Amino acid sequence: MSHPPAEPLSPAAAPENVSDAPAPVGRRFVILYVIAYLGLYLAVMTPLLVSLAIRLEDVDPDGKTRSLGLVVGVGTLVSIVAGVVIGVLSDSTTARLGRRKPWIIAGIPVLLAGAVVTGVASSVGVVLAGFVIGQLGLGSIMTAMQAILPDQVPERQRGKVAGLLGFTAQIAGVAGYQLAEPLRGSGLLLFLVPAAAACLALLPVVLFLPDPAVRVARHDRRGLAAVFRGLAFSPRRHPDLGWTWAGRFLIQLSLMFLSTYQLYFLTDHLGYKLSEVTGLLALSGGIGLLMTSAGAVVSGVLSDRLRRRKPFIYAAAAAFAVGFGIVATAPSFPQVMIGSEVILLGAGVFGAVDIALVTDVIPNRETEGAKYMSVFGIAAALPQSVAPLLAPFVLAIGGGDNYPLLFLTAACLAVAGGLTVRPIRGVR
Is 154 exposed, middle or buried (0-12, 13-18, 19+ CB in 10 A)? Predict the structure, then answer.
């Protein structure tokens, strides 16, 4: 299909109107925002990577794989629905605190309550109930935090800020493994400590960062039916938005195959003891943190200076493919670690540039920023539900526990995700 020779850039790619563009943010804003994200991801990643697997090993040792898929799948779907609805509501919020802070404040006690219920649970049903409660709180907080980036960070700084945000999940993952080892004896602390740390990290954002004055007129406030109508977006009208969403979904789905089943891969497939695994993963994560940090910061800064996003996404997808291939053929932990480090390097590059890419292509940034950021949040969160539901079918092929096929599937998904940026017209 041929392209018109001189199609103008989309509004998201064109230079921002000086009168509408946010003012440059300072070091204080960046530090508080990144610390808050780090704490928030500690509450997100620790259960997904280790806490739920350990809890379900105790509660349902025979059905732990199915139970993990059920708990993560249902909880994530709840978080997705809550996040999108809250995104639309947040855009129309006219509280004195602003549009975003009320939803952060509302999510904090819900997150803590969910952690307590999950931590004291003695059955799969109660673990599921607690995780769902916690996901409701996380959905409210994460939606508001995501919207702060397009609200307050100008385009020329987004790559740099996104680069710093891009590796917070990896730092949180490493910290989660480190926390899990001493807290394994207490189910309550295993979930409550990460949640409490997230809440403490969020307090400076609530207390010290500004929340821009709402630009929605009072007569424009919408009823519930209009809110639900506002949840949809048209990929046909906004193709850049659609391709960016698809790319994030595929990349995150590939990563979820590894992060969700990494612990069981080492114990059930390679024969390591559970007591050994948390220490090994913490070691791997510590080294991977350097890889992720380098990939995120360097790619974020370079993508701003070069005003290009696509080459970095291609490079990240290539790193994923190589890393998953190494893990899929691993006979022991050292090769798993090498493959994981390559994947984490790609994750750092992708995480930084993808966040900047998302904020570049969203339409109506001033009035619907939270809505579209929460829509993109679905692309990151939905794989948390899809991966645990699909993985058992892949693992069952060839007689069961087919982890090599699972990771080769993840490699193919990552490559497909990288190629989705090719049709995007609004960025280079």
Answer: middle
